Every structure is written in C-alpha cells, then in structure tokens.
C-alpha cells in the first residue's frame, strides 16, 4: 500500500524542489561554464580519510527510554567508526541545570565541537550560544534551541511529518468512511515535538475530511501509555483507527488494548521500535504500521561535527559548507516494507 502525503505537504516539497533547481541553474549559468561548482566539493574518499583529531563533547538526556538509549549507543558507534574522533560523553540527565553545567565544562575543556540533545531546547539555548561565542560549533539534535544563533548545525526528526505520514496512512485505510472514529495517543503535550506531531496529524486528516474524535496524552513511558489508553478505551466504545505517537509507550498501549479485549480498530505507531516492527511483521496485532523517527540523529550529529571541525563539506552536496539545518524523513513502515527498516530499529 502506498502512503501519500497531504496536498499541502506535497505543494511545499515541490515548491522547495523548484527553488533548489532554479538556484542550481542560476549558479551554473552565471559564469562561463559552471565548472567551478565542484571545486570546493569533498569526495566521499576525502571525507572518510583520517584528518586532525577532533574532540567532540556529547550530552543528552538520561537513557530512560528505548529510543534515547539507541540515540546514545549510535552516537558512540559513530564516533568509534572514525580514528580521528575522540568522544567525551557526559552523563545522561533530565536536569536542564546539570546539562548546562556539562556544556560549560566542555567549553572550559576547549573541545572542538559539541553535539547536544537538550533535555529542554529553550533551557539550553543560552549555554549553547555561549559555546558558539567561544568558537566551538554546536550541533543541535532532536529538540531545537529557541534561537538559531545557538547552533552551527541542527539535525532533526520530522515531527510534523510524522503526523502527516500517520494521518495520510489512516486516510488511505479509511477511504470513504467519512464518519470514522479516529483516536490519538500523544506523548508529552508540553513539548513542541508533541505539538508538531499532533498538528501534522490533524492537517493530514483534514485533507480527507476526518478529524480526531478522541485524544489522550501520555508521557512516553510504558506505564503512562497503558494508563491513558485504558481511559481512552473506556470513553470510546467504538474506534476505527488509533495513532500512538511513540512505540516505547506503545508497549503499554498494546497491553491496555489486550486487557480490554478490543480489536475492532487498527493502530499506527511512531518512532520505529523493533518490537513494533515484529508485531507488524507477524500480522497478529492491531498494530499494522509505524512511522519512523530516526534514532540515528546523534550519530549524524557526530558525523557533521567532525566535518565542520575539519573544515570539510558534505560529499554529495555542491555547496561548499555543511548545511545549518537538516530534517530527516518520516516514512511509514508496514508489512510490505518492514524488512527494509527492521535492522535499524531499536529495542523498547
């Protein structure tokens, strides 16, 4: 089954692509031959070659969640893959003040770059700005700072796109059912990422004439997912589709569904955990799809930090510097394509 983006999302992507092509054409026709476009481009071989040792400080939240654990292990694995990277990992914490002190320590140590997944983007913004002002490039991962000056590069999962992908999939599955009951099990409502996911979901549903009939919010934990799902199922005697924002809390969501003996609906998950993909693969669960939220973001941050610190460019781009903002894709995983994604999945 193909999964279509909303018309709004398609228009945005096509507009961006048109601008990019126009810009490239303009660059090639402005000079005599356009051959200078490739002069500052590093090859993949040049980027892979060992260079000056880069000391990178990495700080992220406590790994109290399968996705966060995967983020941390992938960051370390990425650093280990380079013989010219020394990674200094601060203890994971959910205390913004402690994380601020970790950033300050990295600055005092004079690291070459900092990769930071903030426990709270707004709270860590000033500390990141101070690092940038000290000449240390900061790579912001996942939870965005409140000021673009706080980061040299930002790499993000597509939270709005997750919602669009989930909503588009549900629209296709419920095509023609204008009275369908759609439920949503969100994460932490106070986080911008949750708000973006819900906004994308609502926009996608609106494009096919549907809306969220029942909504609850959990806290990205198994216990929270189970508790709010029990409340949801009690309040809604009939449901046609559910989108659960997070596969870690989805373990609790599925437990509550099983305890209630409900199976009249199908469910879409979020993030891309291994247990979710195994359930999808089995065909024996109400969970029939999940939307990827890459757990490789910090690993990508390590790679970008190395390139930036060594003054290299991205080998597959012609622009002579590393982009300052990268948003990753949010594809839908179903039984038809799960074999393409399961090796990259994380354990809840």
Q: Examine the secondary-structure arrangement and name the CATH architecture of the largest domain.
A: 3-Layer(aba) Sandwich
Globular, elongated, flat, extended or rod-shaped: what is the shape? elongated
Number of beta strands: 12
User: Which CATH class of the largest domain?
Assistant: Alpha Beta
Count of separate structural domains: 2
Protein name: Monosaccharide ABC transporter substrate-binding protein, CUT2 family
Subcellular location: Cell envelope
Signal peptide: 1-22
Organism: Agromyces flavus
In summary, what is this structure?
This protein is α/β, with parallel strands linked by helices and about 350 residues long. The chain has helices at about 5-30, 45-50, 65-80, 95-110, 120-135, 160-175, 190-205, 220-235, 245-260, 275-280, 295-310, 340, and strands spanning about 55-60, 85-90, 115, 140, 155, 180-185, 210-215, 240-245, 265-270, 285-290, 325, 330-335.
């Amino acid at each position: 089954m193909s999964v279509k983006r909303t018309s709004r999302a398609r228009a945005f992507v096509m507009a961006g692509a048109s601008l990019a092509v126009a810009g490239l054409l303009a660059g090639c026709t402005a000079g005599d031959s356009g051959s200078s476009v490739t002069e500052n481009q590093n090859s993949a071989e040049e980027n892979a070659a060992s260079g000056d040792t880069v000391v990178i400080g990495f700080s992220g939240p406590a790994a109290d969640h399968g996705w966060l654990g995967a983020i941390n292990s992938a960051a370390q694995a990425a650093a280990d893959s380079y013989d010219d990277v020394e990674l200094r990992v601060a203890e994971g914490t959910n205390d913004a003040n402690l994380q601020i002190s970790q950033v300050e320590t990295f600055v005092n140590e004079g690291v070459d770059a900092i990769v930071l997944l903030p426990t709270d983007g707004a709270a860590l913004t000033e500390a990141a700005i101070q690092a940038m002002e000290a000449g240390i490039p900061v790579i912001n991962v996942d939870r965005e700072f409140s000021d673009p000056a706080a980061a040299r590069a930002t790499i993000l999962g597509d939270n709005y796109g997750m919602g669009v992908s989930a909503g588009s999939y549900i629209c296709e599955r419920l095509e023609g059912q204008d009275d369908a009951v759609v439920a949503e099990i969100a994460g932490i409502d106070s986080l911008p990422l949750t708000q973006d996911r819900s906004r994308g979901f609502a926009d996608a549903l609106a494009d096919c004439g549907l809306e969220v009939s029942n909504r609850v919010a959990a806290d990205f934990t198994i216990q929270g997912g189970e508790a709010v799902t029990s409340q949801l199922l009690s309040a809604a005697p009939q449901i046609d589709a559910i989108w659960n924002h997070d596969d870690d809390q989805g373990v609790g969501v599925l437990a509550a569904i099983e305890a209630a003996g409900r199976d009249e609906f199908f469910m879409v998950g979020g993030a891309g955990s291994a247990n979710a993909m195994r359930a999808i693969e089995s065909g024996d669960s109400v969970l029939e799809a999940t939307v990827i939220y890459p757990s490789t973001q910090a690993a990508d941050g390590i790679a970008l930090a190395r390139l930036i610190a060594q003054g290299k460019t991205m080998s597959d781009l012609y622009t002579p510097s590393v982009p300052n903002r990268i948003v990753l894709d949010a594809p839908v995983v179903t039984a038809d394509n799960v074999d393409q994604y399961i090796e990259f999945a994380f354990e809840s």
